From TrEMBL:
Keyword Metal-binding: yes
Source superkingdom: Eukaryota
CDD domains in UniProt: CYP76-like
Cofactor field: heme
Pfam family, one: p450
Keywords, sorted A to Z: Heme, Iron, Metal-binding, Monooxygenase, Oxidoreductase
Family stated for the protein in its record: Belongs to the cytochrome P450 family.
Protein name stated in the entry: Uncharacterized protein
Transmembrane segments: none
InterPro entries membership: Cyt_P450, Cyt_P450_CS, Cyt_P450_E_grp-I, Cyt_P450_sf
This protein's record includes keyword Repeat: no
Length: 524
């Protein structure tokens, strides 16, 4: 990240010099950018010298123009944790021309997500995120208010409620069984677990969204296109972008992030338009239901006071695609890696599966409530490896006081769930993977207890908890019930993490599956 920022600054000044000396027509643009940079410098000096009461939280020394950008580590969750040891539970960083606030304790997190929930109810959305969601029309980007409440209600009741998820159960089962069949064909061979789970979960998501609309070879080809585009979009969303650090420069798109995302978003929109048109042409002739059918029906029948526009409908589908595939596949990969590191945990879970499901049967979603150790494994995995270790950054709508310090309006607020989940004052042996700590049922992920909140808390808590839970549990149970797993000869297990858009393994998990069920027909 440091090299990226240095390159951007160097290239920007080089570009200015070239414009000023070679192109009269571009002189005005060059002067404008120069003025913006100078303005940023003087704004920084002014804000640093201004006496604020109460003061800003403590933090490391910053420099003109760049602030603390050059000292950032790409793995922000661990970098922020190290700052907490020096500066305390709440820290100020200068991210270019933007104030960053880091929350490293459950007490301060409660003030932000509970006591001042309404003030912090908006998210700080990067340029790439804004471009990929029809100008911020999705449930993540939309500011707190009536439009957001409408989207939240639609997602919670029409797409992700128990009734809605049960209605598309067959789609999930079909894709999981096809994955198990594919892995059976690869028995004895190395398999990239994360890649395989991403493909599976993307297929599950697209099947639930429009499985009754697009069929056969068309659906398979469409799934491939969607996977590739989601992969490209998540890379852009996780890329450091100078436009986010210097809002005054956003119009120039110096790194081309907005332009690249706009091209991808257009391709994605074309796909959604095609699928929507097919569904509308079916006009109720298809008996199999999917999310798209739910949404189109809702769009035509809902209260006109806060209508679900076609743009917002498509943005909800986009949320499902990006939020339902990459994060869950990463979680399954982490869980399997942790159990490879502690084989006794895998053995205990397989024994539970054999007791409830049996070796002459396949895992069904109806088995999941009878598998308490599987649930404990999931909760412990989310404790050690939360999907979004810093949540989606919040943005206060007004200046307020938190932890005895001033938090300026418009600042970018990071809540370090990763560190809170590893706090030794809360968790015994916090760096150890111990599912048993969750067997007594004292912890949940409703966001009420700010010592454990892997899906967030407050008004902006993740709306897809029920779906994430089903997909993680069903996937992991099927993998462990159907196969034993081992590392390829000579390979060592690596549990290191890296942070992009979401937390993932730094080194992909490659394992060899060995069938363990009694009848080969169970893999068909």
């Amino acid at each position: 990240m440091i090299k990226d920022i240095q390159a951007v600054i160097f290239d920007t000044w080089s570009w200015l010099w070239l414009l000023i000396h070679t192109n009269d027509s571009a002189y005005a643009v060059a002067v404008t950018v120069t003025v913006l940079l100078v303005f940023s410098l003087f704004s920084w000096i002014f804000l640093k010298s201004k006496k604020i009461s109460p003061p800003l939280p403590p933090g490391p020394r910053s420099f003109p123009l760049v602030g603390n950008l050059l000292s950032l580590d790409p793995n922000l969750h661990t970098y922020f944790a190290s700052l907490g040891k020096t500066y305390g539970p709440i820290v100020t960083l200068w991210l270019g021309h933007k104030v960053g606030i880091v929350i490293n304790s459950p007490v301060i997190a409660r003030e932000v997500l509970k006591d001042h929930d309404t003030t912090f109810a908006n998210h700080d959305i990067p340029v790439a995120g804004f471009e990929s969601t029809y100008g911020g029309k999705d449930i993540v980007s939309t500011p707190y208010g009536s439009k957001w409440r409408m989207l939240r209600r639609v997602a919670a009741s029409e797409m992700l409620s128990k009734t809605a998820l049960d209605a598309v159960h067959g789609f999930r089962r079909k894709e999981i069984r096809e994955t198990i069949g594919h892995l059976y064909s690869q028995k004895g061979l190395p398999v990239d677990v994360g890649e395989q789970m991403f493909v599976t979960l993307m297929n599950v998501i697209t099947n639930m969204m429009w499985g009754g609309t697009v069929k056969g070879e068309d659906r398979a080809g469409l799934g491939t296109k969607v996977r590739l585009m989601v992969s490209e979009m998540t890379q852009l969303l996780g890329k450091p972008n100078v436009s986010d650090f210097y809002p005054g420069l956003a119009r120039f798109d110096l790194q081309g992030v907005r332009k690249k995302m706009k091209v991808l978003a257009k391709k994605f929109d074309n796909i959604l338009e095609t699928v929507i048109k097919k569904r509308q042409e079916m006009d109720g002739k298809e008996s199999r239901k999917d999310f798209l059918q739910f949404l189109l029906k809702l769009k035509d029948t809902q209260d006109a006071k806060e209508p679900l526009s076609m743009t917002r409908l498509k943005s909800l589908l986009m949320n499902m695609l990006i939020g339902g595939s990459d994060p869950t596949s990463n979680s399954v990969e982490f869980a399997l890696a942790e159990m490879m590191n502690k084989p006794q945990i895998m053995q205990k879970l397989q024994e539970e599966l054999d007791s409830v499901v049996g070796k002459d049967n396949v895992v069904e979603e109806s088995h999941l409530p009878k598998l308490p150790y599987l649930y404990a494994v999931m909760k412990e995995n989310l404790r050690l490896h939360p999907v979004l270790p810093l949540m989606v950054p919040h943005c206060p709508s007004e200046t307020c006081v938190v932890g005895g310090y001033t938090i300026p309006k418009g600042s970018r607020v990071f809540v370090n769930i990763w560190l809170i989940h590893r706090d030794p004052s809360i968790w015994e042996n916090p760096l150890e993977f111990i599912p048993e700590r969750f067997l007594d049922g004292s912890w949940d992920y409703t966001g009420q207890d700010l010592k454990y909140f892997p899906f967030g808390s407050g008004r902006r808590i993740c709306v897809g908890v029920a779906m994430a839970e089903k997909m993680f549990l069903f996937s992991l149970a099927s993998l462990l019930h159907s196969f034993d797993w081992k590392l390829p000869e000579g390979q060592k297990l690596d549990l290191s993490e890296t942070l992009g858009l979401v937390l993932k393994k730094q080194v992909p998990l490659v394992l060899i599956p060995t069938p363990r069920l009694s009848n080969p027909e169970l893999y068909q």
